[in-house]
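Translate structure to sequence.
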């Protein structure tokens, strides 16, 4: 089945909402506050274990796992006074449908004693020596690259060596069957997790309600957010909220929500004589104080959204995204992996219908970076959003693929699995330290069609060109992954947002020039970043469209995501920019990400890379000379190579900054030559 068709059946991941948890509860056959058709249906489909069975299973490992799960009690029997019962409180009852149709099979009922023994043999005590310690899943992901330090490389050229031969491709997986089994096997863990999440949500809602009630009592319906010059109370509030050392966070938060309320309904709620700009300025100040952003970055991120959505974005950056692992289909399939991990005490479920290889981890009693399955390369810890560029690139078997910025290899190894280890992938990264992690992952996951190189990718296609598909997962500011790396809140400056896009623009042209427009199967380029800023995304793609008329934007085929901006703060982008996709932590509960897919529809401009197309691959048609070649500054020395976010080169950047200043002056109608001149002294009186 082609990916395109499969995608149509898939839905987006859940947004962060009460409904998400309610849905999961329904799925697990648990009661939710609002009864719906789905709720009524759920108990018929799913079965759950009693608390007794849970305890037994926990203490007795697989023996207990083999016990048949108890049927789901009727909804009325489950409902407690507050509408939510914990797994412990639920009493067993029989389920008509299960009896009538087919008795639900426990997940491990066909497991031999040998397999049970295996589970015990590699139990917790053996795993505690693993690098992750006792704190659960702490090993790196594909962005931060803590896998860099992973020296647990298992050479796996022999392929999967787990005794009997196992099915390799999860394409064969029966999705609904698997979900049912997984849900049954995980039911107690999931219920516990969901109860906990519901409790947290309820507490947060209560606090929110109390907060707004407090406001309503104090100020009536028109919130008083901005201070009057002559008001002592206001001075006190200002002193409390603006105090450098210990701002009153509760007050700040209240003022943030109230200001948003005013901005939402400005005509009715604003204080007499106060402008929208004043409210916005106050809100930004409060956001900086409350969440700890630099003013510069807070404003940049705020401007992407409506005030309410911006608040949701800043909030989402305060909590971690779900831990997700990607099944390595070169070694196993998702069902087998899930069974193995559940057997070790991991609570999980499929990440969503949009992926056949992702598993979301809810709880684990073992360090995920040290299980035998991890060491044998059956999975990699990989953020869900990192799947997306690979899905968009959609590499085919036997193709030639370039991954321009590949370390630590989360995406490279996914591409290799998609290609079933056929064809070849050039996995490039100039950062040698990060490349160690890349090589480690390639070996551990058994990706045998990968060649590693260490070029500054701006040099491509000189070393090699003519690829069927090119992935550019560009170095970026990381504004989409602030939850993972909060230092981004303060360490990104205006200079970064000039220098990074500059590098990204050079890289995207190199990516385009490295792809073969005459590829029989491809000619596609995917550009992605884990940043949400327009400078690093739409502006870079727009630049590529302008400089390379031989490419066009095409559908990413990812079944969810917000459309890229076609205009932004007065800037107009190509209408096809709506084909690009944006992902936000608050809307999809994934890292912030951007994905654009380009197709090369004509020959590479002669002056740049055509000459490096492999022999026999060169197009016989006359070459089109690009009338808009890369600007003169694009041939400069590459930036320093040790920076994950694009490196640094004082000389280049100084020159670049100077150029920027001169252009800015020109735009303001000033003479750039006067830049260095001293200001004339004021005439003395
Ligand atoms: C977002 S990370 C890539 C993550 C990787 N694609 C994965 O999935 O594991 C960006 C990478 O770009 C690399 N990089 C920085 N400057 C580069 C350049 N000029 N050419 C190629 N890669 C570069 C960094 O070393 C870093 O590993």
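Result:
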């Amino acid at each position: 089945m082609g990916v395109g068709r499969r995608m149509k059946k898939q839905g987006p991941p859940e947004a962060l909402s009460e409904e998400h948890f309610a849905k999961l509860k329904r799925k697990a056959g648990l009661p939710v506050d609002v009864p719906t058709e789905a709720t009524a249906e759920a108990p018929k489909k799913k079965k759950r274990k009693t608390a007794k069975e849970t305890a037994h299973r926990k203490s007795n490992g697989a023996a207990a796992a083999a016990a048949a799960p108890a049927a789901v009690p009727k909804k009325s029997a489950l409902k407690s006074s507050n509408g939510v019962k914990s797994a412990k409180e639920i009493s067993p009852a029989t389920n008509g449908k299960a009896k009538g149709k087919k008795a639900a099979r426990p997940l491990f009922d066909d497991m031999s004693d040998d397999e049970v023994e295996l589970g015990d043999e590699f139990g917790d005590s053996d795993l505690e020596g693993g690098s992750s310690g006792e704190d659960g899943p702490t090993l790196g992901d594909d962005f931060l690259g803590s896998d860099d330090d992973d020296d647990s490389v298992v050479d796996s050229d022999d392929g999967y060596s787990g005794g009997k031969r196992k099915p390799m491709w999860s394409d064969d997986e029966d999705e609904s069957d698997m979900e049912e089994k997984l849900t049954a096997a995980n039911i107690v863990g999931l219920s516990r997790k969901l109860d906990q999440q519901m409790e947290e949500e309820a507490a947060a809602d209560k606090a929110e309600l109390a907060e707004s009630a407090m406001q309503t009592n104090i100020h009536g319906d028109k919130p008083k957010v901005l201070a009057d010059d002559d008001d002592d109370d206001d001075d006190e509030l200002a002193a409390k909220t603006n105090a450098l050392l210990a701002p009153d966070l509760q007050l700040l938060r209240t003022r943030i929500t109230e200001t948003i309320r005013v901005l939402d309904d400005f005509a009715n709620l604003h204080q007499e004589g106060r402008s929208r700009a004043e409210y916005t300025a106050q809100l930004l100040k409060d956001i900086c104080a409350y969440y700890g952003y630099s003013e510069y970055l807070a404003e940049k991120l705020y401007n992407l959204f409506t005030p309410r959505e911006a608040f949701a974005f800043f909030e989402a950056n305060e909590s971690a995204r779900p831990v997700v692992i990607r099944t390595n289909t070169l070694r196993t399939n998702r069902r087998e992996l899930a069974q193995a991990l559940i057997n070790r005490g991991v609570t999980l479920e499929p990440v969503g219908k949009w992926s056949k290889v992702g598993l979301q981890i809810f709880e684990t009693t073992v360090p995920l970076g040290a299980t035998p399955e991890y060491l044998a390369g059956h999975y990699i810890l990989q953020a869900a959003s990192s799947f997306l560029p690979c899905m968009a690139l959609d590499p085919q078997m036997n193709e030639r693929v370039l991954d321009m910025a590949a370390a630590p290899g989360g995406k490279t190894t996914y591409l290799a699995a998609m290609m079933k280890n056929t064809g070849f992938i050039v996995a490039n990264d100039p950062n040698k330290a990060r490349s160690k992690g890349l090589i480690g992952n390639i070996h551990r996951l058994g990706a045998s069609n990968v060649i590693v190189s260490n070029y500054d990718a701006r040099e491509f296609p000189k070393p090699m060109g003519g690829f069927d598909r090119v992935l550019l997962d560009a170095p970026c500011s990381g504004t989409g992954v602030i939850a993972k790396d909060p230092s981004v809140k303060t360490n990104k400056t205006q200079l970064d947002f000039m220098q990074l896009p500059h590098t990204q623009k050079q890289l995207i042209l190199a990516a385009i020039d490295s792809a073969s427009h005459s590829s029989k199967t491809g000619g596609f380029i995917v550009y992605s970043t884990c940043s949400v800023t327009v400078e690093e995304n739409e502006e870079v793609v727009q630049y590529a469209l302008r400089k390379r008329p031989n490419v066009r934007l095409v559908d990413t085929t990812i079944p969810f995501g917000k459309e890229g901006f076609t205009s932004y703060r007065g800037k107009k982008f190509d209408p096809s920019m709506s084909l690009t996709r944006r992902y936000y932590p608050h809307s999809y509960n994934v890292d912030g990400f951007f994905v654009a897919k380009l197709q090369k529809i004509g020959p590479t401009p002669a002056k740049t890379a055509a000459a490096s197309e492999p022999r026999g691959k060169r197009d016989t048609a006359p070459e089109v000379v690009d009338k808009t070649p890369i600007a003169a500054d694009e041939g400069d020395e590459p930036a320093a190579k040790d920076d994950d976010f694009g490196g640094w080169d004082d000389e280049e950047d100084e020159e670049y900054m100077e150029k920027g200043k001169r252009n800015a002056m020109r735009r303001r109608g000033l003479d750039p030559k006067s830049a260095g001149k001293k200001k004339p002294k004021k005439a003395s009186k």
